[in-house]
Amino acid sequence: MSIPEFPDTQDKQPNIPISLTRVGVTGVKKLLKIKREDKRPIVLLPTFDAFVDLPSTQKGVHMSRNPEAISEIVNETDCESEMHMETICANLVKKLLEKHEYAVCAETEARSEYIINKLSPVTKRKTQETTQIIARAVAQKDEEGNVTVRKMIGAEVVGMTVCPCAQESVEKDSRDKLLEFLDEETTEKVLEAVTFASHNQRGIGTILLEVSEQQDVNVDDLITIIQNAMSSPVCEILKRPDENRIVTNAHQNPVFVEDCVRNMALGLLEKYPDLSDNSIVTIKQVNQESIHQHNAYAEKVASLGELREENN
């Protein structure tokens, strides 16, 4: 039985000849298995957005080609090993330009929950922690038909922060009270032995790192950098000794929201000394306040070259 042919309405001239920056689909979910040598595969359920630009001479994009391209790339990934999600996005934008011959730009983004296994700090209970990983890619086609791809990988991680300002106030108040019945030397010994209270925040740290198609970044490295930038990582399963360790460690490492961003920037520079200067990084930190109704926010957007110059 032959398949009937229908006219391509999308190829007609639009009534209003205005080009569009992004046209496509959002919210396409796929099961993705990333094979690893001598390890179980990583199973992800990413949500894809995929777009191309539309010239002013074309009424619409051939929309079905976008989810079709996503399916083809995901199916190809099942046969590969150690395929990073940002590389999948890079392959996808190239596929989109192949399918949409009228387009000169293609963009895609994929987001997925990513489970990491860890042990609680004292009792060593096995626990699974959930993070978010984000991958993006942009492909640009020049007049000669040459395609340039930039890809980006990122992670969003929840941690704990302790306010240094409130802690200093509590320490000063405690010192003044101790000096009412202790001498200066004894007071200082007491202050060195105790951990001072402060208000806490649930911190959400994000790193988005854009690199060329040939460069690779391990998302696990980014997760570690984000965790280390805050007062303490958090843990899903904690017994009382674990709780004590995390709370004590966090209060011995108080940080402002601004400190978290700067810590992440330094962590990136130390981890990737050879990554090219034109790699672009976006670093964000949101601290959900416990004694205010508002949240605290800090951000840094720069090339790695600019970060290196500032840090010298």
Structure description:
The chain is of the alpha+beta class. 32% of the residues lie in helices and 35% in strands. It has 8 helices and 11 strands. Strands 1, 4, 5, 6, 7, 8, 9, 10 and 11 form a 9-stranded antiparallel sheet that branches. It has a two-stranded antiparallel ribbon with strand order 2-3. The termini are far apart.
Average of the residue pLDDT scores: 90
Structural class: alpha+beta
User: Which parts are unreliable, with pLDDT below 50 for 5 consecutive residues or more?
Assistant: none
Shape: elongated
Biggest sheet descriptor:
9 strands, antiparallel
Q: What distance lies between the first and last C-alpha atoms, to the nearest angstrom? A: 71 Å
Alpha carbon gyration radius: 25 Å
In DSSP terms (H or I, runs of 4 or more residues), the helix count works out at 8
Helix content: 25-40%
Strand content: 25-35%
Strand tally is 11
Q: Order of SSEs, N→C?
A: EEEEHHEEEHHEHEHHEEH
